[in-house]
Amino acid sequence: MSDTPVSTTSLQNFELVEEDLEIIRKQRVNGRTFFKITKDELERHGMKLGPATTLVEFAKECKERKLRAFSSYKTKKDLSEVLRKYGIDGNGIGAISQFPPKTYSLENEDKELKQCIRELKRRLSNMGSVVADSNEAMRFIGEESTSHVDYAIKALEELICITEGKSYQVNISFAQNLIQCESALQVNKKKRKTLEDNFDYIYGIVTTATEWYFILYTTGKISCTSQDPLNIRLVRSALNENSEAEKELCKNVKQVMEVIVGLLKDRLEVEREPSKKKKRVQGYFEKQEI
Q1: Whether 14 and 115 share a structural domain
Q2: What is the rounded distance in angstroms from the CA atom of residue 118 to the CA atom of residue 112?
Q3: Do 34 and 137 fall within a single domain?
Q4: Sequence-separated (6 or more) residues with CB below 8 Å from residue 202
Q5: How many independent structural domains does the chain possess?
Q6: Which residue, 62, 111, 214, 219, has fewest beta-carbon neighbours within 10 Å?
Q7: Lowest-pLDDT choice from 28-37, 43-52, 69-78, 229-238
Q8: Do 146 and 242 reside in the same domain of the chain?
């Protein structure tokens, strides 16, 4: 954590009232001092026992886990460190078990799909061809994030998908996305009113703009599509109507969109029926063992 004040927005997850948040703001509790706060100090400044205990326990948990910013995971060694948490011995994404992602069939004339292709071609016309390690690819994706996820998709107040986009080094993006998914599940757990359904899973998306990978993340287990990534070839010739390059672009964008929509619909469905979560994920991992 930096020396900037702790975000009161993130602290809302602990169901603190405005009076509690004002104490944090007024006392300028920042990253370093957050790890050192005590219940006595918080209570002396007017915080009730309940929220003071919650915050101190959370600070202790953060310190013990030595939380790092997502963006600090930048090497193959970092990926190896993340993978070891899940019993995986390796320093590349090929060591992660595979899963067949859910898909949802889209029609070629689907309104949203056509809009997506139009927008993609518009950007492509402004930049020219995009290759994975070019400056154009970096502009295509947008500026690299630091400690913030690129996109977080929510449904029914819970996070269901986290995306990470970079124009280079897929291994690094995987490491960062796995850490993001881990944090997202912790956020979901804190928001639940009951602990009856303690099992959860979330999807991750890693992309270089041209290559697309999908991650299934659940506590204690991870799986992905690293051996069969989807590819979108972004070349200027795809701007030519009815050309082979344009047909290929449309086909590949459709494939990616069908997986994204399929995963989101799957996760939304089980969110409405929590009892299906564990059964659904067990089905994925059973397919890997066949």
Answers
A1: no
A2: 10
A3: no
A4: 159, 160, 161, 162, 181, 184, 185, 188, 217, 218, 267
A5: 2
A6: 111
A7: 69-78
A8: yes
